[in-house]
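Box S2. Input/output pair 1.
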Amino acid sequence: MSDTSTKVAQSIAISTRYLAPSKAALPGLVLQVTQLVDSYMLWVGISEGGPEDKEQVVAQGNLCKDWAVAMPPRPPGIVGSATSLFRSASTDVALPMAQRLARRFKKQIFLSVDIPAAVVGFGQGQELLLDAERGLVEALKELE
């Protein structure tokens, strides 16, 4: 896994990382984490290249393909508020993933999943989404 970080302002940090595919049949993933005050803005997309292409993948990515926001539950134990900001008719993976991340990290989560519906619907699409969520959890754990 390769990681680059940039400080934009004193309270905002952006890091981009490449996740190698867990299986040869799956594409690699690129994650961009923007750490804000008590919230995270996350983007995940697929990469046909390697770690050296991660910045280009982010620049060419689509923020509004499947984008959701979720609040942590208050009080704990209930479902926190969440909504889709943009989504296509064929996929809605960002909303439940954002809810799980908000509940786990107790912060507001903006999550954009830029994985084509054809890839998600393909035989190993769910495994790719699981890899994406695991990568996001690992990245956020490092920031906590």
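Box S3. Input/output pair 2.
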Amino acid sequence: MFKEIRHYVINKIVEQQRKCGKWNTVFLPRICEIIENNKEISSFCHVKWNGAMGYEVQCNQETFVVRVQERKCTCRRWDLIGIPCAHAICVILFRKEKIEDHVATCYRKEIFQALYNCILFPLPGINFGLIQKWEK
């Protein structure tokens, strides 16, 4: 049983390393999709600067407050998952900043690569240890 689990983990690590090597983006592909979807939604929002309190974003008859320095929005999506929501993206683009600078670092490709950079070394079979014991 242990052997099968170990082989499964080794195969999974190799598969993730290969997948990651094919990516040509800064973030994981799914994160890029989320950012692009939020960017499209943000085109329907309007920004008003509210001084020290942050920015007020009007989107579909709802108003949201975005604080870029704190990485917070009253919709709470940005706070919870670390990816700028549509309202935050609207403000980030209004400020002429890069969206990539406001995404949590845990979604970066190099962090993902570091996670799967470990190596499980091969183990000798169970018979190898028994043979050595009897030879002593």
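Caption for Box S3: The helical segments are 2-22, 29-42, 77-81, 86-94, 109-115, 126-135. The longest helix spans residues 2-22.
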